[in-house]
Amino acid sequence: MSDFIENIKKVINKDICINSIENIFEIKEGSKESKCKVVKLNNIGVDSFAFSLDGSDSHKKFPFFDHRCPKITSVNDAILFVVTQKNIFVFIIELKTQNISSLPKQIKAGEHFLDYLINMTNFSFDEEYSVEKRVLLFSCRKQAKKMTTRKNNLTFKYESTDFTNLKCMEIFCDNVSPFYLCNVINGN
Fold first, then answer.
1. H helices within the chain, ranges in order?
2. Which terminus, N or C, of the chain has the lesser number of Cβ atoms within 10 Å?
């Protein structure tokens, strides 16, 4: 497991990587209309890696697809890999303002892309990596959980109907407060 991050970095084009600065990943929403524009993920750890396919230039990212086909280039705001002593976690990250009606299809697209990515990484490096996929939804909806300044453990809930049995957590996005991912991983 310890070589997973190095191998996944070799597979992903450097142009789409999100660099960690002082152990903080900054995930940004490109849409100008969005109220949830940025999320800072803190204290992630050394064994982590993030990338984003989100952006307007999907023709370059997916040159082999016919872009007239609906949803063929659906992507997530970010994908984050975190390796702990026991597990490899993959977080499908979405930043939403209010309307989350498109979320199930975006999450499903991310899940399919991750399956392909992990399978190709396993194939390329003769490995059998197994990952635990989870969803982090940052939104401005009123029912999203507001984070406190205390570092308490948070738990995921299962959203089996819409998210194909992935664990999902919705967090209030205020564009300022840091989110401590270690609390999520430790809280399972």
1. 4-11, 58-61, 103-125, 181-187
2. C
Give the whole-angstrom CA distance, residue 22 versus residue 155.
26
Gap between the Cα atoms of 186 and 188, Å rounded: 5
Smallest CA-to-CA distance from 188 within 155, 149, 150 is with: 155
Q: 3-state DSSP call for residue 83?
A: strand
Q: What distances in angstroms separate CA 99 from CA 7, 137, 168, one per listed residue? A: 36, 12, 17
Q: Which helix (H) or strand (E) holds 57?
A: none
What is the pTM for the complete model shown? 0.83
Place of tokens 């453990």: 153
Q: 3-state class of 110 per DSSP? A: helix
What share of residues in the chain are helix, strand, coil (percent, to 5)?
25, 25, 50
| Per-residue pLDDT tens over the stretch 27-44 | 988 777 788 888 888 877
pLDDT value at 11 more than 90: yes
